[in-house]
Amino acid sequence: MDSLIIPFRLPSDCVREVIYHLPGDYNALFSCALVNRSWCRFTIPLLWSDVFSSNIPSDKKVKVIPAYVKCLSEIQRQTLINNNITLQEDFIPALFNYPKYLKFLNCRYFDNALYYWCKAVIKPDTDNTEFQNILHICNQVISQYILSNSIGLHTLFLSPHSKDETCTMRLLPDTCDEGIYRAFSKLTELHIENWFSMTAQNISTILLILEKLSLYSHYIQKLVIIFNQSSDPIYQQEVIEHLSLLINSQYNLQSFTIKFPYNSNSQSSLSLPALSSQSDSLKYLEISKFCDIPLLIPYLTSVNLETLNLIFYHVRTQFEPSALPSLPSGTQFRIKNLIISGTHYPMLYSSFSLIVKMSGSNLEKISIKVCDETIRNAIGEYCSNLTSLTIMVDFTMFEQFLNLLSKLKKLKYLDIEKKLNDIQLTKEMVLEFTKIIPNTLEELNFDLVINQEHFNEFLKELKVPLSKLTIHLSALNDETLNFIVDYAIRTGKLKELCFDATNSLTEEALSKAKDVILIITDITEDDMGFGLFD
């Protein structure tokens, strides 16, 4: 008699553990949902937690909308039908209340999916004006249902889908059920990116949403604000004030990013006192196109602020920063990572130097591509614990750079970039550089004006055993690659080589290098070469 085969069943806690290690792997999750009812019950919440992710193809996002429509009440479905929406005649209610599981909502992707679903279900002879009206009604009905049923929404991206700035959050009426806004109560991450332009048409909606967020969202840990570039400066200060209320209402804000529009008079717009309310929690601060850095400095005493990222764009020739503040004796910033990028203003160099000085030995990483002696002196004098440095070096200040480098005894990563149209370094400069490089250095990104012969001498004399070398040398050829291989053999540590070169290397030379160096990458722009070897 054939033996009875009883299939092995995993305990529920094991099934849960397996499934919750598959976030983002939608194919695997979908397969899990088809195993049996138990697996399906555990899988659906994870599978439907981020259905509007950028990782999901657009056509699959569109298929989410009909599933949400099946969750609507009969009255809500009838509202759609009454507005010329063609629904399936063989209607079958959804097995799950899918909006309940939504944790990540990107309004732009939702609105985009809804738009293409409406294109499919609205009668094709509908004119554009009527189509837009129906689309808005669909958006109101479905988005309000999603928000009122979501019980765990923790990440929200507010950004418009179309040029007319149609957006889920724009369509919430002033009198909508307060239960909808309670969906914001568990938000831990909020992105308002290129949202509505601040115009007379939109300002009331913007202020309403910010007011509701301030009222219901108190646990945001990451806040990103990117203003629409076509915003009217007249309304900017009012929006900033509401943003300040939102910041003040947070209990544990850890990361704050704000990017102002190009036409912003940003030095009078950023409500800095709001940052003080987060002084015990804020770890990351990124500000773009804010030029009056002296106004910011007094607010950098946050207990836990680790990273300060200042980004500049267009030169403002008529801009005059405020005077440097007078800080109390003993003031120290706890900044560990300082990043200053983009177009630089010489009138701000003293501010940058002060930030470096006040951060002092707390600084571990600095990226500041500025050719300024004052800043370099501040780094050398106060940043004894620096492990990573990205800096611009030119011919006229190369000696000062070497002096700085000689003081950094813990440096592990060095990225040096040449100044545009700089003069070629002499052989003596290059050889002196090899002597000054700290023995602690592990990675070197080398982009200086230097000829091939001098670079070969550099490799011959270099004693520090690097693990990664990145070089930008237009004249790189097989001979220089052989010098690199010899260096790798001599030191026994070089595991990765990245090169940016105009000349092509032969396959024979690359093959020989591959035998010694584990990873070789051609990072030349518009690369048509050999690519990655590993």
Could you describe the 3D structure shown?
Residues 526-534 have low confidence and may be disordered. Helix 1 runs parallel beside helix 3 and helix 6 (107-121) crosses helix 7. The relative contact order is 0.04. The protein starts with 11 loop residues before the first helix and ends with a strand. 37% of the residues lie in helices and 14% in strands. Among the domains are: 9-47; 51-153, no CATH class; 306-315 and 330-413; 424-534, Ribonuclease Inhibitor (Leucine-rich repeat, LRR (right-handed beta-alpha superhelix)), CATH 3.80.10.10. The chain is an alpha/beta fold. It has helices at residues 12-19, 26-33, 37-47, 58-69, 74-82, 107-121, 128-149, 178-181, 203-216, 233-248, 273-276, 293-296, 349-359, 373-382, 398-407, 427-436, 452-461, 478-491, 507-514, and strands spanning 104-106, 155-158, 189-193, 222-226, 255-259, 284-288, 307-312, 337-342, 365-368, 388-393, 413-418, 443-447, 468-472, 496-500, 519-522, 532-533. It contains 19 helices and 16 strands. It has a 16-stranded mixed beta sheet.
CATH superfamily assignment of the domain at 424-534? Answer: Ribonuclease Inhibitor
Instruction: Please tally the helical runs, counting DSSP H or I stretches of 4 or more residues.
Output: 19
- Total E-strand runs: 16
What overall form do the CA principal axes indicate? globular
Helix content: 25-40%
Q: Radius of gyration in whole Å, from Cα?
A: 29 Å
For this structure, what is the CATH class of the domain at 424-534? Alpha Beta
Q: What average pLDDT do the residues reach? A: 83
Q: What CATH architecture of the domain at 424-534 do you see?
A: Alpha-Beta Horseshoe
Classification by helices and strands: alpha/beta
Strand arrangement in the largest pleated sheet: 1-2-3-4-5-6-7-8-9-10-11-12-13-14-15-16
Organism: Cetraspora pellucida
Protein name: 15932_t:CDS:1
